[in-house]
Amino acid sequence: xxxxxxxxxxxxxxxxxxxxxxxxxxxxxxxxxxxxxxxxxxxxxxxxxxxxxxxxxxxxxxxxxxxxxxxxxxxxxxxxxxxxxxxxxxxxxxxxxxxxxxxxxxxxxxxxxxxxxxxxxxxxxxxxxxxxxxxxxxxxxxxxxxxxxxxxxxxxxxxxxxxxxxxxxxxxxxxxxxxxxxxxxxxxxxxxxxxxxxxxxxxxxxxxxxxxxxxxxxxxxxxxxxxxxxxxxxxxxxxxxxxxxxxxxxxxxxxxxxxxxxxxxxxxxxxxxxxxxxxxxxxxxxxxxxxxxxxxxxxxxxxxxxxxxxxxxxxxxxxxxxxxxxxxxxxxxxxxxxxxxxxxxxxxxxxxxxxxxxxxxxxxxxxxxxxxxxxxxxxxxxxxxxxxxxxxxxxxxxxxxxxxxxxxxxxxxxxxxxxxxx
Length: 422
Known about the structure:
Elements (H helix, E strand, L loop, with lengths): L1 E6 L5 H6 L9 E2 L2 E2 H11 L4 E6 L4 H7 L8 E6 L6 H7 L10 E5 L2 E3 L11 E4 L9 E6 L2 E5 L3 E3 L3 H13 L10 E3 L2 E3 L3 E3 L4 E2 L3 E3 L3 E3 L4 E8 L3 E3 L4 E7 L4 E2 L4 E3 L1 E4 L2 E4 L4 E4 L6 E2 L7 H25 L3 H4 L3 H17 L4 E3 L8 E3 L11 H13 L3 H15 L21
Parallel strand pairs: 1-4, 1-6, 4-5, 13-16, 14-17, 15-18, 16-18, 17-19, 18-20, 19-21, 20-22, 20-23, 27-28
Antiparallel strand pairs: 2-3, 6-9, 7-11, 8-10, 9-10, 12-13, 21-26, 23-24, 24-25
């Protein structure tokens, strides 16, 4: 069996108003994109090839889903001109259908609302002729005839329907697998979730990978939190969704909202606002203060002067000594300190988009080598930077290097572009 997902104009125009730049097929629903949810289900139906006919095609979708090896099937991506019905689509992409195989067509952004995926074909209604304007639904080509699957469907025709669908899957996932590694009686957790003391968690709840909840955080009445999120201390979220790569500031309260970076979407009124204050919500942009620059310049001066004798003595033997973490500092981090001294970078990395730095906040824990953990620490430092934290990061990092006998797999404080964009 083959399958085809059609993503085109119809009932998804609201997506562009609230999530500009995001392909509707990639929009996250309870932690997974619409496309990924459907590919999961097709793999259980023994579908061997899937064609994603996308009127808004971008390479991002193909990069995230891959070629289908994960599901032991083949994924094909077809940039598509909008079609009025499936006949026009098959005429545009003749490689989709073969006479000997059944073809499952998901027309528009719908999802089956059934307890077992094999019930999808339990009730079929034959269409004597293909309508000129095909309505959203799930269809099956079998033996040259077109059938409509009459099972109940989840729909996303408006922001409100999309919002409630997230919580329907959270409370009653049925055939849909939520993206978590630990499911504890209604609480689904991803990897590397740090929950500090005095947090209040109310079921059901979905927290994805690399999330940090500071002290006093409260998550109530169903909350979904995406990847790489930091919720700062004293904040309260009720019946809300936090999208990937988002920061929630201290002592904030959100109810019936979707928070995506600095964009706050109020679902009941279907309005949104962009917050300019990056200490309320947001993503990384430089908002430095002069006292931090003074502190970093002062520390850089001490390191440059104090480390110069060690640098000069060890430089001729660096080929052998660089295998030790402390002397690796003299070859890679020490030169960065000179750049900081002349105002060419930060001493401690300031935000995800800072690629010219000497140390990272996570250098206080030298054995923390997983990049996504370091990114969470970078985000925390970005919104909680202080002179004390700068001094502590640099001093603790230097002291701990004295006790590391071999070079770490990847030095966390080189500030080079080997890491690539984060």
